[in-house]
Amino acid sequence: MQAWLCETATGPDTLQWKTLPLPEPQPGEVRVAIRAASLNFPDLLIVQGKYQFKPPLPFVPGSEFAGVVDAVGAGVMHLKPGMAVASFGGLGGFGTHACVNAQLAMPLPPGFAFEDAAAFLCTYGTTHHALVDRAQLKVGETVLVLGAAGGVGTAAIQIAKAVGARVIAAASSDEKCKLCAELGADATINYSQGDLREQIKAATGGKGPDVVYDPVGGDFAEPVFRSIAWRGRYLVIGFAAGAIPALPLNLALLKGASIVGVFWGEFAKREPANNAKALMELAGWYARGLIKPVIEHRLEMHELPKAFELMAARQVRGKLVLVNHAAS
């Protein structure tokens, strides 16, 4: 097999494309011949040694991928060689093969494209958990999505619309706002222009959003939280801007608002039955055409350095997918 090997965790520039021994699945694992893998922001952090999880060196990065089971470890009964699966396993995706805990491999229904599947579990799993479970989003409520043209942002627009909510999409350029409108956003805000609070006020008729979906953090968090509606829920998804904001807690008191943490990976681990139910609902929405990953860039697996450059330069709308045309 071939894979990108991280031996120093000092950044993407040190990754090397190497030939490695084909791994054998251990008890409870399956080996997947990877057809496609997607790049997520934590993949960048983990090869920089900045992520909360620091795997022992060396390791193959790549948390999210899809492919075909080609070997099964002892004790695995629900998966068989030849089955198409998607996995969000933490490591191993940026190569031709990976072994993963069988419980982390989701069987794909017929018609689920590998490229879509590779861009699905993390973004849509996170967003369903955020909006449907943690925020208890209701029909007719208004959701403000920050970073709305990114991977989780585009998923948030689609899932909120599937639930029956009104969506205000906030992004950093007119081009990105145009994409959000094409995905179904009812209104858009270019937060690189004008006063953000005034734009939110205008888009909500002065009421403020019922739910804020924030994967960005940074300087926008406080003005947005000041704009939230009574009984609003502020979903903390991540910190793509780099800075972790500190919100004045008196704002939560004054608005009767909630600051709600969203950690899908831990939810999936602690509540596997609830996570499986959510993924089944998402698969049904995909089959009905209500949701579909936005994939702006498709690159060959050996082009991973270029993929990291695009992500670091914030030139990815939706998701970036790397493909193996012939996993062998």
In short:
The protein contains eleven helices and 15 strands. It is of the alpha/beta class. The strands form three sheets. Strands 3, 4, 5, 6, 7, 14 and 15 form a seven-stranded mixed beta sheet that branches. A six-stranded parallel beta sheet has the order 10-9-8-11-12-13, sandwiched between helices.
Q: Secondary-structure blueprint of this entry?
A:
Blueprint: E1 2-5, E2 16-19, E3 29-39, H1 41-47, E4 64-72, E5 84-88, E6 97-101, E7 105-107, H2 114-118, H3 121-134, E8 142-145, H4 151-163, E9 166-171, H5 174-182, E10 187-190, H6 196-203, E11 211-214, H7 221-226, E12 233-236, H8 249-255, E13 258-261, H9 264-270, H10 272-287, E14 295-300, H11 304-312, E15 319-323
Parallel strand pairs: 8-9, 8-11, 9-10, 11-12, 12-13, 14-15
Antiparallel strand pairs: 1-2, 3-4, 3-6, 3-15, 4-5, 5-7
Q: What does the model show?
A:
There is one protein chain. 31% of the residues lie in helices and 24% in strands. By secondary structure, it is an alpha/beta fold. Strand 12, helix 8 and strand 13 (258-261) form a beta-alpha-beta unit. It has two domains: 2-120 and 293-323, Medium-chain alcohol dehydrogenases, catalytic domain (Quinone Oxidoreductase, Chain A, domain 1), CATH 3.90.180.10; 124-265, NAD(P)-binding Rossmann-like Domain (Rossmann fold, 3-Layer(aba) Sandwich). Helix 3 packs across helix 4 (151-163), helix 3 (121-134) packs across helix 10 (272-287) and helix 9 crosses helix 10. It has helices at 41-47, 114-118, 121-134, 151-163, 174-182, 196-203, 221-226, 249-255, 264-270, 272-287, 304-312, and strands at 2-5, 16-19, 29-39, 64-72, 84-88, 97-101, 105-107, 142-145, 166-171, 187-190, 211-214, 233-236, 258-261, 295-300, 319-323. The protein is globular and about 60 Å long. The strands form three sheets. Strands 3, 4, 5, 6, 7, 14 and 15 form a seven-stranded mixed beta sheet that branches. A six-stranded parallel beta sheet has the order 10-9-8-11-12-13, sandwiched between helices. It has a two-stranded antiparallel ribbon with strand order 1-2.
